[in-house]
Amino acid sequence: MDDGGTHQGSIVGVTSSANCVSCPKGMYCEYNYDVMPKLCPIGTFSDVSGAEEAGDDNNPTAFCKPCTAGYHCPHLGVWDINNGDYICPTGSYSPAGSSTCFDC
Asked: How far apart are CA 27 and CA 36, in angstroms?
């Protein structure tokens, strides 16, 4: 099986972790489990490649993190919250982990 933060993709008969592929941004791979990566859940994001299991607090730089307060992550697989699409507009707010912005 593959190491956490990687997947074997469409390669059949993988014999070592050297053949594994890093999970793309906005996705995560469970350690020793996933053949293909999974999209980060709604309300979370991953801005790094190689994310391991969603919510793995032992490795805070490589997993699906709660959406930052003041931003919203409304769909699966968010990876770039700083592109302007996810910041809450004037007159609204959001706590960390939000999938929507709320009116003040």
From this structure: 10
pTM: 0.72
Contact (CB, 8 A) for 67 and 73 = yes
Whole-angstrom Cα distance, residue 45 to residue 28? Answer: 10
46 neighbors 28 (Cβ within 8 angstroms): yes
Over residues 10-68, the pLDDT tens digits come to: 555 555 566 667 778 898 877 655 567 888 899 999 888 877 665 555 554 457 889 99
Rounded distance between C-alpha atoms, residue 16 and residue 59, angstroms: 23
Q: What is the distance between the alpha carbons of residues 76 and 102, in angstroms, rounded to a whole number? A: 20
Query: Which runs of E-coded beta strand occur in 2-81?
Result: 6-7, 21-22, 27-28, 38-39, 44-45, 65-66
